[in-house]
Amino acid sequence: xxxxxxxxxxxxxxxxxxxxxxxxxxxxxxAPLDGMWESFVGGGKHWMIVETAGRxxxxxxxxxxxxxxxLQFFTQDLRDGxxxxxxxxxxxxxxxxxxATQQAAYLSYCLDHKRxxxxxxxxxxxxxxxxxxxxxxxRVVTEGEFEAAVEFGIAVLGCDxxxxxxxxxxxxxxxxxxxxxxxxxxxxxxECRISETQKPYADVGMMVTEKHRGQGLATxxxxxxxxxxxxxxxxxxxxxxxxxxxxxxxxxxxxFVSEHRILEIGF
Length: 267
What we know:
The chain is α+β, with helices and mostly antiparallel strands. It contains eight helices and twelve strands.
């Protein structure tokens, strides 16, 4: 059996062959990856897969997060996949994996080692049928509204302040964060994150303050974002956690359908 070793690389200073492998990986998928999950992969620890007694060029790569969960696994030749995955499990000792169902080969390898499986996230694409607009006023959040956006995000998400500030600063600079205002207060946001690696896709999303939920506002935002994407020649995709039934309803009402899932598999 061919033997492999796994060479650690820093994703932010990765060699060119890693970028090419990632490009090949994305092109091999049946559907685009969720943009937020792709960003999680970017923050993981990257390993080049190299034949121990073969060519020096890497034949694939894998990514693990801080919890020792595999986030991505790819080999150029499918024949290398099963033995390389087996040896990755032996050498790197992952506890499990997150894998989207459009990642067929990687999913199969994970299922070969499965001890547990749960659905984590639902992935959506646009339905072919057009949707109407509601006349909602959705406008770009400006740099001068940064603090209001952060205050809104903390109230709705309750997440880390430093992370949220960086996230919103980036999206405001790229004009990818939009807001709905009422009586001078930000009551809802929409996002249109144009993918740099999976063109022509854009990840859309929305958040609404608790007081203004249940009024169809989330659906209206997503419909507006769909029209915005269409005008720019983009295809909208989105996702939500399996437990978030309200978001699933809003996404479906905005004209999206779900074909794929992100699974959490324990080894």
